[in-house]
Known about the structure:
It is a single chain. By secondary structure, the chain is of the alpha/beta class. It folds into two domains: 29-181, Leucine Aminopeptidase, subunit E, domain 1; 197-518, Aminopeptidase. It has helices at residues 2-19, 53-62, 66-73, 111-129, 142-155, 182-208, 216-227, 240-245, 249-255, 309-323, 369-384, 397-403, 418-428, 439-444, 461-470, 507-518; strands spanning 29-33, 42-46, 83-87, 96-101, 134-136, 174-178, 233-238, 263-270, 279-289, 329-339, 351-353, 359-361, 388-393, 408-412, 432-434, 452-453, 479-483, 489-490, 501-502. α6 (182-208) packs antiparallel against α10.
Amino acid sequence: MKIWSLIVLTSLSLNLAQAHNHKDSLPTAVEFSESLPVSGNLLLGVYADGSLGQYGSTLDKSTNGGINHAIKATEFEAKKDSTQLITAPKGSGLAQILLVGLGDKADKLTHLDWQNLGGNAVQTAVTTFKTAPAMAFDVNDSEITANLAFGAKLGAYYFDKYYTDEERHKQQTKLTLITQQAAAAEHFYKTELSSVANAIWHARNVANEPANVIFPQSFVERWESHFDGMKNIKIKVLDEKDMIKQNMGAIYGVGRGSKRPPRMMVVEFMNGNSDEAPILLVGKGITFDTGGISLKNPTNMWNMKFDMSGAASVMGTLYALAGRDAKVNVVAVAALAENMPGGNAQRPGDVVTSMSGKTISIRSTDAEGRLVLADGNYYADVTYDPKLLINLATLTGSASRATGKDYAAMFTRHDELVSDFITAGKASGDQVWQLPLNDNHFKAIEHTVADVMNSGPDAPGASAGAAFLGTFVRETTPWVHFDIAGVAYRDDATPSKASPGSTSFGIRLLNNYIKANFE
């Protein structure tokens, strides 16, 4: 009887730990309107020369110059991204107005500048009002208004689903952009930006979830639900039996120590010419990384839930492309495993055989990301013969120390690819910087016992990690690796992210790059 009770209680505890509030939060809705609100609050754009645009001028006129009076009284200079809260003038019907500085009209702001302006504005509004009121920026350009909406939606993101105190909730259910070109702005937003914003939202949600919620199989199920109903999508999932059958000893070895077995999720979006080789996006998906037998220092181990950020972003990128019906062929591969020190876990000194046939000496079980990508890369390369193979991975601490929070580290054997990615990074806000990769880095990972070793070479860590990944991609295949360890998550707010946690780095970069170079 006591044994039966223990089993029941244990089962109940597991269910409570894994099943609480797992429903994914819906992305904030965005709408466009040509009419000012007649009550409540308002965000109103103001240029540095004091010009208000049609909506601001209408308000000013209806309140006998009340808006201009408030601007002068508060000495608001309307520098870009500055704000000033005023009591709405009598006769406007509104309660309060948050003035938002748009800077000088002569400044040539990029779409990224407008996105950041929208993100900053909505974050200030949520802090001020707890909810974001309608936004009237009067820029008279449908694409700019759409980009303001895009930035506002990203800036409104907040991962607050586990707060039981409603007062702590910041996530917005709806944003309204007021513009004279509402129909045109809505069309551009829906066709070009909406799916990208939703992709970023989904990727952040998946990466921010705790590891008792997101593990290899639940990662697959979460993205299957997001892709459900989308056109030209085919999904294939390799389980541990498939991995053993296909000799994927590298990814299987990483997942051996966990009760939650590894998975490889393959999603095809074939919307280009039928005879055109696809672009391959292969992401590291370590849903939690203890370091395995080479156990990490426990102090900051909690944030190893973000070690699957590369996999989340490659899935997000494909979702963005499919959502806007991009005329390209793209395949995303998520190499998924949980790295745990269980009784069946691999050990330092073990030798595993990868799908390619190359043998790997396990010098450290904490260099696991390159192992799952070894099989992920080789599978992607030989299965699809891609025109370009891109890796996205939180691979090394040395990359983050080299490039900090501003850039992802970029590695490639094909230098002709670099400039276009740098351009896409600057335009999208997901900036990248090239670090060295040469023959010495490939020689450094050679080993006396096996073909290569996964850790410990006498070479810079980030470059050695990149060389390891490149070993499992044919030299004739154009290949780029982005080490996103320094940029995948951050605890401070940015214009496009109010919530601590995932940045979903890579989705905007790859969407921009593919659009500019392959569509």
